[in-house]
Specification:
By secondary structure, this protein is α/β, with parallel strands linked by helices. It is built from 4 helices and 5 strands. The radius of gyration is 12 Å and the shape is globular.
Length: about 110
Protein backbone atom coordinates (compact mmCIF):
# COMPACT_ATOMS: atom_id res chain seq x y z
CA UNK A 1 0.00 0.00 0.00
CA UNK A 2 1.31 3.40 -0.97
CA UNK A 3 1.53 5.95 1.79
CA UNK A 4 2.07 9.70 1.59
CA UNK A 5 5.60 10.57 2.68
CA UNK A 6 6.60 13.61 4.72
CA UNK A 7 8.64 16.18 2.83
CA UNK A 8 10.58 19.12 4.25
CA UNK A 9 12.02 22.41 3.02
CA UNK A 10 15.44 20.71 2.82
CA UNK A 11 14.32 17.71 0.75
CA UNK A 12 11.63 19.36 -1.41
CA UNK A 13 13.77 19.85 -4.54
CA UNK A 14 15.10 16.31 -4.41
CA UNK A 15 11.86 14.48 -3.55
CA UNK A 16 9.28 16.59 -5.41
CA UNK A 17 10.83 18.77 -8.12
CA UNK A 18 13.22 16.07 -9.39
CA UNK A 19 10.75 13.19 -9.11
CA UNK A 20 10.29 10.97 -12.15
CA UNK A 21 6.52 10.97 -11.75
CA UNK A 22 3.93 13.60 -10.83
CA UNK A 23 3.80 14.44 -7.12
CA UNK A 24 0.78 15.67 -5.18
CA UNK A 25 1.85 17.72 -2.15
CA UNK A 26 -0.63 18.17 0.70
CA UNK A 27 0.16 21.42 2.54
CA UNK A 28 -1.27 21.05 6.06
CA UNK A 29 -0.78 21.81 9.77
CA UNK A 30 -1.68 19.83 12.91
CA UNK A 31 -4.00 22.58 14.21
CA UNK A 32 -6.00 22.78 10.96
CA UNK A 33 -9.41 21.12 11.34
CA UNK A 34 -10.15 20.52 7.61
CA UNK A 35 -6.61 19.20 7.11
CA UNK A 36 -7.41 16.00 9.03
CA UNK A 37 -10.16 14.68 6.71
CA UNK A 38 -8.20 15.93 3.67
CA UNK A 39 -5.19 13.94 4.90
CA UNK A 40 -7.35 10.81 5.08
CA UNK A 41 -8.55 11.38 1.51
CA UNK A 42 -4.96 11.92 0.32
CA UNK A 43 -3.98 8.62 1.96
CA UNK A 44 -6.81 6.84 0.10
CA UNK A 45 -5.74 8.47 -3.17
CA UNK A 46 -2.13 7.37 -2.55
CA UNK A 47 -3.39 3.78 -2.26
CA UNK A 48 -5.33 4.10 -5.52
CA UNK A 49 -2.82 6.10 -7.61
CA UNK A 50 0.39 4.92 -5.95
CA UNK A 51 1.86 3.44 -9.11
CA UNK A 52 1.05 6.51 -11.24
CA UNK A 53 2.12 9.34 -8.97
CA UNK A 54 3.70 10.10 -5.62
CA UNK A 55 1.98 11.70 -2.63
CA UNK A 56 3.71 13.94 -0.11
CA UNK A 57 2.67 15.89 2.99
CA UNK A 58 4.31 19.17 3.98
CA UNK A 59 3.64 20.61 7.44
CA UNK A 60 3.56 24.38 6.82
CA UNK A 61 4.45 25.17 10.45
CA UNK A 62 7.73 23.30 10.24
CA UNK A 63 8.51 24.16 6.61
CA UNK A 64 7.58 27.80 5.98
CA UNK A 65 10.11 28.31 3.17
CA UNK A 66 8.39 26.06 0.62
CA UNK A 67 4.88 27.15 1.68
CA UNK A 68 5.93 30.77 1.15
CA UNK A 69 7.68 30.04 -2.16
CA UNK A 70 4.46 28.63 -3.62
CA UNK A 71 2.21 31.28 -2.08
CA UNK A 72 0.25 28.95 0.17
CA UNK A 73 -2.23 31.24 1.94
CA UNK A 74 -4.81 28.80 3.27
CA UNK A 75 -4.70 25.15 4.18
CA UNK A 76 -5.37 22.50 3.27
CA UNK A 77 -3.94 23.18 -0.16
CA UNK A 78 -2.94 20.50 -2.63
CA UNK A 79 -0.36 21.27 -5.31
CA UNK A 80 0.38 18.79 -8.08
CA UNK A 81 3.89 19.01 -9.53
CA UNK A 82 4.94 17.52 -12.85
CA UNK A 83 8.44 17.84 -14.30
CA UNK A 84 9.38 20.18 -11.45
CA UNK A 85 6.55 22.65 -12.06
CA UNK A 86 3.26 23.20 -10.23
CA UNK A 87 0.50 22.10 -12.60
CA UNK A 88 -2.64 22.33 -10.46
CA UNK A 89 -3.59 23.94 -7.14
CA UNK A 90 -6.61 22.83 -5.13
CA UNK A 91 -7.49 24.91 -2.07
CA UNK A 92 -9.71 23.75 0.77
CA UNK A 93 -11.34 20.47 1.69
CA UNK A 94 -12.81 18.77 -1.38
CA UNK A 95 -14.71 15.53 -1.91
CA UNK A 96 -12.62 12.56 -2.98
CA UNK A 97 -14.59 12.18 -6.25
CA UNK A 98 -13.73 15.76 -7.23
CA UNK A 99 -10.04 15.20 -6.50
CA UNK A 100 -10.02 11.97 -8.52
CA UNK A 101 -11.52 13.84 -11.47
CA UNK A 102 -8.75 16.48 -11.25
CA UNK A 103 -6.02 13.84 -11.00
CA UNK A 104 -7.43 11.79 -13.88
CA UNK A 105 -7.39 14.93 -16.08
CA UNK A 106 -3.78 15.63 -15.14
CA UNK A 107 -2.61 12.07 -15.65
CA UNK A 108 -4.49 11.73 -18.93
Amino acid sequence: MAKPFDVSDDKFDEEVLRANSPVLVDFWAPWCGPCQPMGAIVKELADEYGDRMKFAKLNVDGNPKIASKYGIQGIPTLLVFKDGKPMRQIIGLRPKAELKKELDQLLG
